[in-house]
Hints:
Elements: H1 10-21, H2 27-53, H3 58-69, E1 76-77, H4 78-85, H5 89-101, E2 105-110, E3 113-121, H6 123-144, H7 149-164, H8 168-180
Antiparallel strand pairs: 1-3, 2-3
Helix pairs in contact: 1-2, 2-6, 3-6, 4-5
Amino acid sequence: MNARRDDRDDLDRMLTVWAREIGDLDLLTEGIVQRIQTLSRNFEHSLEETLAESELDRREYRVLTLLRSYGPPYRRSAGQLADQLGLSSGAMTNRLDRLERSGLVRRLPDPDDRRGVLVEPTDAGHAAWDRAVGIQARREALIASALTDSEKEQLHSLLRRLMRAFPIDAQVAAKRQRLHAVGKPEA
């Protein structure tokens, strides 16, 4: 680890301790993993703050994000949403009831299924999602401004390569988790 003394942080100091205590530990790999995990927690905390400011909870945000990901007219059946979110039909109904009471979605009759309903965001739902995404995008851009455009491209490429190094089962599980999380488009 070749961090200049003035660039060292708490993790670098902890890695020095681990080097003493765990002789065969690959410090560079451990540092990478620890930094990625710390960044993930920090980005999650940032999103939670954004959602609180936007008066959305994560469940509402996930449904709105999923609906927005389909593109206009942003409609899906409750069953399709439940499948995508990994929810039972009862849990999906409860979630949609809350979203509907909050004025964020509406249910429409499904023209292809007399018993079915389609779910779509209301204008208020679109506005709430737009507001949350805008706030979070600005926060993330501010954080990423610590890097040059070239460094961002390089980091993005390196992280993609690390992601592909996981066995396919882990990649599939991670993709499912990303679909269920914030719903941002994959890069």
